[in-house]
UniProtKB/TrEMBL annotation:
Protein name listed in UniProt: PfkB family carbohydrate kinase
Family annotation (Pfam families): PfkB (PF00294)
Domain Carbohydrate kinase PfkB: 22-281
Keywords, in A-Z order: Kinase, Transferase
Record keyword Translocase present: no
Highest classification ranks of the organism: Bacteria, Pseudomonadati, Pseudomonadota, Alphaproteobacteria, Rhodobacterales
Length: 304
C-alpha cells in the first residue's frame, strides 16, 4: 500500500549554482524532491507526475531504483519540462524553460488520472505545477481522514496571480509557500504578520520557507508562530530543498504529529537533499542518523 503521494511536475534541469558550477541533465521537479523528502521518513511513497517521452523510461527506472513507486509517472508527448535552474541566492532562484522544453501547463493535462493504487494513501502533497491544476488537485484530493498539503510556484512561466485569492486553503491541512513566493504574490510588509493572519483566519496551517534561515510556522486558527532554523550541514546544492521540506512535513502531518515536529521532520529532509548534487544523489539515511538530526532540529525550535 502507498502511504504518501506527491503530485506535480518532473523536470530535467541544467543547474547553475551561485559559484558558476553547472550540472547538466539532472532529474528534478517538485514532485520528485518532495517524494524524496517524504521517503526519508516512510518507505512507501508514490510519484504522480508526467515525464517527457525521451526521458520517461530513464526517469521511471532511476526513480524506482531510489526506492519510490513510479506507477503514477505518465509519459507525455514532447520533451517534457527541460529547465535552466539559476541560483541567485539560497532564497532567489529562477527556473527558465529551455527552447527544447514542452509548455509547462501542458504537463498538467499529461499527468492523467490518479492511479487506483494511490487512492487510499493517507497523505498527498500538491507540489508546484500550474495554478489551475494545483487548486483543482487540492479540491479533488480533499477528503475526511486524508492529509493534503500544497506548495506553489511564482515563476514567470505561470500566472501566479491565480494564487492571490486564498479560498483554496479550505481544502488544505497545510500551505507551504517560500518567502520569495509570498513576496511576489502578496508583498506583505512583514512575512510573520502575513503568515499569522492567514493561519488565524482559516483551518490550514501556513508555513513560510525562508531559505537558510529555516521555516516559520503559523498554527491554523490561532496564528501562533514558531521558528525552526535550518540545520547546519555541508551544502552542495540547494535545488529542491523547499520541496524536500514539504515531503518531510507531510510525513509528520499525515502521521498526526504536532506541527513543530512536522517542521523538524521537513528540516531534516531538506538537510539531506542539500548535501547532494541532484535529487537522486540524496542518500537514504539510517534511522539513527535521521533521528539524531531530528532531535537537533526540534531542540532549536522557538516560539516567536
Amino acid at each position: 500500500m502507498i502511504d504518501l503521494v506527491t503530485v506535480g511536475w518532473l523536470t530535467v534541469d541544467d543547474i547553475v549554482l551561485e559559484d558558476g558550477t553547472c550540472r547538466r541533465s539532472m532529474p528534478g521537479g517538485g514532485a520528485l524532491y518532495s517524494a524524496i523528502g517524504a521517503a526519508i521518513w516512510t518507505a512507501s511513497v508514490g510519484v504522480h507526475a508526467p515525464a517527457g517521452r525521451p526521458h520517461a523510461e530513464r526517469s521511471r527506472a532511476e526513480i524506482a531504483s531510489w526506492g519510490l513507486d513510479t506507477a503514477g509517472i505518465a509519459t507525455a508527448e514532447g520533451n517534457g519540462l527541460e529547465l535552466w535552474m539559476l541560483h541567485e541566492s539560497d532564497v532567489h532562484k529562477q527556473q527558465i524553460r529551455k527552447l527544447s522544453s514542452s509548455e509547462p501547463l501542458a504537463m498538467d493535462a499529461a499527468r492523467g488520472p490518479l492511479p487506483e493504487a494511490y487512492g487510499k494513501a493517507s497523505g498527498f502533497h500538491v507540489a508546484p505545477q500550474g495554478p489551475e491544476s494545483s487548486i483543482a488537485n487540492a479540491q479533488r484530493l480533499h477528503a475526511p481522514g486524508r492529509t493534503v498539503t500544497m506548495d506553489i510556484l511564482a515563476d514567470e512561466m505561470i500566472d501566479a496571480g491565480r494564487y492571490a485569492d486564498l479560498s483554496y486553503l479550505a481544502c488544505l491541512d497545510a500551505f507551504l509557500p517560500s518567502e520569495a513566493e509570498i513576496d511576489r504574490i502578496w508583498a506583505p510588509a512583514r512575512i510573520e504578520d502575513w503568515l499569522a493572519e492567514t493561519a488565524r483566519s482559516g483551518s490550514s496551517h501556513v508555513v513560510g520557507k525562508i531559505g537558510s534561515k529555516g521555516s516559520l510556522l503559523a498554527e491554523a486558527g490561532t496564528g501562533r508562530m514558531t521558528h525552526v532554523p535550518a540545520l547546519a550541514v555541508d551544502v552542495a546544492d540547494t535545488t529542491g530543498a523547499g520541496d524536500a521540506y514539504c515531503g518531510g512535513f507531510l510525513a509528520g502531518l499525515a502521521a498526526g504529529r504536532p506541527l513543530v515536529e512536522c517542521s523538524a521532520m521537513g528540516t531534516v529532509s531538506a538537510s539531506f537533499v542539500v548535501e547532494a548534487y541532484g535529487a537522486l544523489a540524496t542518500k537514504r539515511p539510517d534511522a539513527e542518523e535521521r533521528d539524531a538530526r531530528y532531535e537537533r532540529a526540534l531542540s532549536r525550535a522557538a516560539t516567536i
